[in-house]
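Hi P.,

Sorry for the delay on this. The queue was packed all week, but I finally got your sequence through. Input first:
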Amino acid sequence: MEMEREYIKVNKPSQLPNYIHLLKELDDDFWKKWIFYYLLTFYQNYDSIELKEKIKKSYPRVEREIAKFLRIKLNADREFSYHFTAFGENTNDEEVEGNYDITIHSTNWKSKEFHFECKNLNDSQDLVNKYVYYNTYKKDSNNENIFDGGVYRYFNGKYAQKLDFGGMIGFVLEGDVLSAKNEIISKLNEKFNTTSDGDLIRIVDNSIEENEFTFDSYHNRFSSEFIIHHLLFNFS
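Then the structure:
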């Protein structure tokens, strides 16, 4: 196990109450702060040698292996598993729709679940496009191009339709995290091909505990605001 990564800012939120009726009264922001705390704690303490071995063995399905690694580590944390469960896709078929890479669930949270789509990132524009939005060049039944992308799935009817928030986790395997963040934000400013759903309203930078590898993007969806919380983890 490596030394803690001191540059990662982690602050433990206010204690969760012991009584179910009080837990059910907590708002989404309170629950999300706890989930961010566990994600940041994982990132601060994960064993890079163990992860690199798993990445080496899992090529070309690196993205799924890292997401699985993260889920396993979260669920192995006794404190986390007292209130939460992390689960994810159970198929190797990348064409199956609606499979979140990581879902964090609590029976006592009124919103129930926080969904995260995970994408690999490096210096290439191709992976930035897949993180946000891209043309698959496949055709639908009307012979129109089919578009896809991690962020886009929150706006094309696939993801988190009953919630007003979702998450993206970028696994930066090569290159600079801040450069990747800037490229993603630039791509987010481009309009999607469908309706006004997904149009960027604003960016809140360093949004999670003031960590530079995080930001929030606010989008139009169903004539209201939909927020995506982004965390870019450097696994290079």
